[in-house]
From TrEMBL:
GO molecular function: oxidoreductase activity, acting on the CH-OH group of donors, NAD or NADP as acceptor
Signal peptide residues on this chain, from the entry's feature table: none
Organism: Alteromonas marina
InterPro entries referenced in this protein's UniProt entry, alphabetically: NAD(P)-bd_dom_sf (IPR036291), SDR_enzymes (IPR052184), SDR_fam (IPR002347)
Protein name (Swiss-Prot/TrEMBL): Short-chain dehydrogenase
Length: 241
C-alpha cells in the first residue's frame, strides 16, 4: 500500500523537511498550511491545501473532503506549535509575574487545541492496517522532567498536548486496532521557532530540519507498534511523561 502522509503546519521548518523527505521516499503527501503554498515547492507527489482557520468546523470539512476522495492515511505528523510570537508580543515567561491570560490562551489554542481537533477528525480516515500519528511535542512538556521552571504557557500547553495524545491513543487503538500515536521531541532545531533561543545551544546540538526529518522517520519505523502511545526524543530515547 502506498504511504499516504498528511503533514500539518506545512510552511514550518521541520514540516518542510518532512514533506521533502517523505516525498523523496515515494510517499503521496498532503500538506496543510494556513499559508497559500505552491505545489511546486517540492518535487514528488505533494499536494498543498490552504486551511487559513484551523478550528473544529474547518478541520472537519477538510477531513470530510479527503474521505470523499477515498483517501486513507498511513502517516500523519502534526507540527503545529509556537513558542514566541512577535505579532502580539508573546514570549516564554521567565517568572510568575510574566504570566498573562492572553498568552496562556494563545499557547493552549495553538499547541493543544488545534492538534486536539485534528485528532478528533483524523480517526475517521486513518488506515486500520498499520497507521501512525505523530504530534511534535517538546521535552519541556514533560511534567516529571521539569527541573528548570519558566516557560509556563509553552510547557503547560505541550503537557496538555501529551495528555490529549495519550488519551486519544486509547480510543484510536480500540477503533483502528493497528495504530500508534507518538509525542515527539525533536531536540533544538534551527527554525524560526528556536531562533531567539539558540545562543546557549552547542553547535552540534542545534539540528538541521533535514536531520530532524530523517531521525523522526527512522525512529517511527523502530517503535513497538503494540504500544499504543510513545513519548520519545530525537535520539529515539523514551521521555518520561
Ligand atoms: N524548533 C525546535 O527547536 C523545536 C523544539 C521542540 C519542539 N518543537 C516543536 O516542533 C514543532 C514544529 O516546530 P518548527 O521548529 O518547525 O517551527 P515553525 O517553523 O515555527 O513551524 C511551526 C508551524 O506551526 C504552525 N502554526 C504556528 N502557529 C499556528 C497557529 N496559530 N495556527 C495554526 N498553525 C500554526 C505553522 O504552520 P502553517 O503556517 O504552515 O500553518 C508553523 O509553520 C512545533 O510544535 C514545536 O513546538 C520545535
Amino acid at each position: 500500500m502506498k504511504n499516504n502522509v498528511l503533514i500539518v503546519g506545512a510552511s514550518g521548518g521541520i514540516a518542510s523537511a518532512l514533506i521533502e523527505q517523505y516525498s523523496s521516499e515515494g510517499a503521496r503527501v498532503f500538506a496543510v498550511s494556513r499559508a497559500p503554498l505552491s505545489d511546486t515547492n517540492h518535487s514528488g507527489d505533494v499536494t498543498y491545501h490552504q486551511l487559513a482557520e484551523q478550528d473544529d468546523r474547518h478541520i472537519s470539512e477538510f477531513v470530510e473532503q479527503l474521505a470523499e476522495q477515498q483517501v486513507v492515511l498511513t502517516t500523519v505528523v502534526i507540527t503545529t506549535g509556537f513558542l514566541h510570537r512577535e505579532s502580539d508580543g508573546i514570549h516564554p515567561e521567565k517568572r510568575l509575574e510574566d504570566v498573562s491570560e492572553q498568552a496562556l490562551a494563545a499557547y493552549f489554542s495553538t499547541n493543544s487545541i488545534i492538534p486536539a481537533m485534528w485528532l478528533k477528525h483524523l480517526v475517521n480516515i486513518m488506515s486500520k492496517e498499520g497507521s501512525t500519528l505523530v504530534c511534535l511535542s517538546a521535552r519541556v512538556g514533560s511534567i516529571s522532567d521539569n527541573g528548570l521552571g519558566g516557560w509556563y504557557g509553552y510547557r503547560a500547553s505541550k503537557a496538555a498536548l501529551n495528555m490529549l495524545v495519550k488519551t486519544a491513543s486509547v480510543e484510536y487503538k480500540r477503533r483502528l486496532k493497528d495504530v500508534m500515536l507518538v509525542c515527539y521531541h525533536p531536540g533544538t532545531v534551527d527554525t524560526g521557532l528556536s531562533k531567539p533561543f539558540q545562543k546557549n545551544v552547542a553547535a552540534k546540538k542545534l539540528f538541521t530540519p533535514e536531520f530532524t526529518a530523517k531521525q523522526l522517520i527512522h525512529h517511527l519505523s523502530a517503535l513497538n507498534r503494540d504500544q499504543s502511545c510513545h513519548f520519545i526524543d530525537w535520539n529515539g530515547e523514551v521521555v518520561t511523561w
